[in-house]
Specification:
Blueprint (H helix, E strand, L loop, with lengths): L32 H26 L1 E7 L14 E7 L12 H4 L3 E2 L14 E2 L8 E8 L14 E6 L17 E9 L8 E8 H12 L3 E5 L5
Antiparallel strand pairs: 1-2, 3-4, 5-8, 6-7, 6-9, 7-8
Length: 227
């Protein structure tokens, strides 16, 4: 005898709700107009500064430079000068390259070093021998000259240094006397090493210096430049 299946109990549980999809809310980016304006201004300023710097550093002008060492008082020659290109700088006042020919024959007021820029104050048209002065050539042995090189325009002191005073001479008491002079030219050494130095002295001292020089009783001392 078969047994009938018993009826199942009714399912009273509610089905689980289906998961809802995750909805991402859009992120709203807030841009502040003031920051944008500031950034734009900074970019403009930087661009303008960069352009100005490029213009200043890239603009170069031709000027005159010294091609070789030139002593003070020397007359400038064409081979003493050279054209150079430098960036514009208000602090520098070199002579323009267009004036190169005008400088030939002018005298330097200071010693010029190779590679330096020539300035208007470095040269002059004034002669070394001034009005009221006389030019006297003096032959000097190496022992009566300073070892330091003499340059045109240099101030020196001429000292009367007789070897042996001549008895009865009216010039006996002049030993040690001095004269102020300016070096005009220094000749090259001869076979004995002596050099002829042209000195500019006042008219009152010209005859006296010539007398000392004829006897070979002259020595030179360099006068320190006034600071």
């Amino acid at each position: 005898m078969s047994t009938a299946p018993s009826p199942s109990a009714p399912d009273t549980a509610h089905p689980a709700p289906a998961p809802q999809p995750l909805v991402r809310q859009p992120v709203v980016r807030r841009r502040r107009s003031s920051w944008i304006a500031l950034g734009t201004a900074v970019i403009c300023v930087c661009g303008a500064a960069g352009g100005w710097l490029y213009t200043v550093t890239s603009h170069r002008e031709p000027v005159i430079a010294v091609a070789r060492d030139v002593p003070m008082g020397a007359e400038l020659k064409a081979e003493d000068l050279i054209e150079a290109q430098i960036a514009t700088d208000p602090a520098l006042k070199p002579v323009p390259a267009g004036d190169l020919k005008k400088l030939i024959g002018k005298r330097t007021t200071v010693g010029l070093s190779r590679g330096s820029l020539l300035t208007p104050s470095s040269v002059t048209d004034e002669p070394l021998v001034q009005a009221g002065e006389q030019l006297v050539g003096v032959s000097l042995t190496p022992a009566r000259l300073p070892a330091t090189r003499l340059s045109p325009g240099q101030k020196v002191k001429v000292i009367h240094t007789p070897k042996e005073p001549v008895t009865g001479s009216s010039d006996d008491n002049t030993a040690g006397q001095t004269l102020q002079a300016t070096v005009i030219e220094v000749g090259g050494p001869d076979n004995s090493g002596d050099r002829v130095v042209d000195l500019a002295v006042s008219q009152l001292d010209g005859t006296r210096l010539a007398t000392w020089a004829a006897s070979g009783d002259v020595s030179l001392v360099i006068v320190p430049a006034e600071g």
